[in-house]
């Protein structure tokens, strides 16, 4: 027997509805970033209503202890079967969340993604409302670059790309040419249609590619669309530390600019707590 009649719901004006989306994060040895990311999320969304899933990828450090202390997240402690490439570990962790979620959509975030204004989530959800063939909404650039940087980056990468293609045409040894422009959504902030993924038996770790890339190749062939949000719009609402996990773990391998970005953003957010 129902504990609440339809007429009672109409009188109160309140009807319990399941959340439209869940949130997915993967942590690996990034205590400072993960704590900032979750603190901002708690301010941005109603975490008592929106499921926040976090997979710890066998950190075995203080970041795991921190996650165990939070009662409003759904924590999965993953134990890899052996050595894994970083992006494969991330994709397999996302698939563990994908198996468990029951919401229409799944918002992928990196632990180095800091949402300051939750309006970006509403903007992304609205893209799905306009077309039921939309598989995902996201951004193709992981950072907001200024115009001179964008022009210089495209020119240098484009020159390298065509030079390597020329060498291949001449039968010379060279590295495989890498496209000088982005063709895939980045998972630092991307909203996916769970029903579409599951109805086709797909997953984030397909094809041993960067998480989600294989689906971005396959789903358009089945008639689905991917809706882009321009970096200048996306980064009005959030910040993303490109290669943030690597900066936190072993930044010595990264360019100094990326390390400074990590340090500056983390310092600013810790100061604002």
Overview of this structure, please?
The chain is an alpha/beta fold and 273 residues long. The chain has eleven helices and nine strands. The strands form two sheets. Strands 3-2-1-4-7-6-8 form a seven-stranded mixed sheet, with helices on both faces. α2 runs parallel beside α3. The longest helix is centred in the middle third of the chain and has 23 residues.
Q: What is the tally of beta strands? A: 9
If helices are DSSP runs of H or I spanning 4 or more residues, what is the number of helices?
Answer: 11
Kindly, what is the distance between the CA atoms of the first and last residues, rounded to a whole number of angstroms? 47 Å
Taking all Cα atoms into account, the compactness measure Rg is: 21 Å
Helix content: 40-55%
Secondary-structure-derived class:
alpha/beta
Low-confidence stretches: 1-14, 250-256
Which features does this protein show?
two-stranded antiparallel ribbon; alpha/beta; 273 residues; 9 strands
Topology, element by element:
Elements: H1 6-12, E1 21-27, H2 31-44, E2 52-56, H3 62-68, E3 74-77, H4 86-100, E4 105-109, E5 113-115, H5 119-129, E6 134-138, H6 147-169, E7 189-193, H7 194-199, H8 213-218, E8 225-228, H9 231-234, E9 238-240, H10 244-250, H11 256-271
Parallel strand pairs: 1-2, 1-4, 2-3, 6-8
Antiparallel strand pairs: 4-7, 5-9, 6-7
């Amino acid at each position: 027997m129902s504990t609440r009649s339809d007429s009672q719901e109409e009188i109160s004006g309140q009807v319990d509805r399941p959340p439209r989306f869940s949130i997915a994060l993967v942590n690996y040895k990034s205590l400072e970033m993960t704590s900032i990311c979750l603190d901002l999320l708690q301010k941005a969304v109603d975490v008592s209503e929106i499921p926040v899933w976090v997979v710890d990828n066998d950190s075995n450090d203080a970041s795991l202890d921190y996650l165990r202390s939070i009662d409003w997240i759904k924590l999965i402690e993953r134990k890899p079967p052996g050595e894994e490439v970083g992006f494969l570990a991330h994709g397999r962790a996302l698939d563990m969340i994908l198996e468990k979620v029951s919401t229409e959509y799944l918002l992928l975030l990196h632990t180095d993604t800091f949402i300051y204004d939750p309006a970006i989530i509403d903007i992304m959800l609205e893209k799905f409302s306009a077309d039921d063939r939309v598989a995902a909404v996201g951004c193709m650039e992981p950072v907001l670059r200024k115009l001179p940087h964008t022009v210089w980056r495209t020119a240098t990468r484009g020159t390298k790309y065509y030079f390597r293609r020329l060498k291949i045409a001449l039968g010379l040894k060279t590295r495989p040419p890498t496209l000088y422009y982005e063709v895939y959504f980045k998972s630092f902030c991307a909203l996916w249609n769970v029903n579409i993924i599951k109805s086709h038996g797909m997953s984030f770790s397909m094809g041993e590619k960067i998480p989600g890339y294989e689906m971005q190749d396959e789903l358009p062939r089945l008639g689905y669309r991917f809706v882009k949000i321009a970096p200048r719009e996306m980064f009005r609402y959030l910040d993303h530390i490109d290669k943030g996990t690597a900066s936190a773990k072993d930044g010595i391998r990264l360019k100094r600019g990326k390390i400074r970005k990590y340090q500056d953003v983390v310092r600013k957010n810790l100061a604002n707590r």
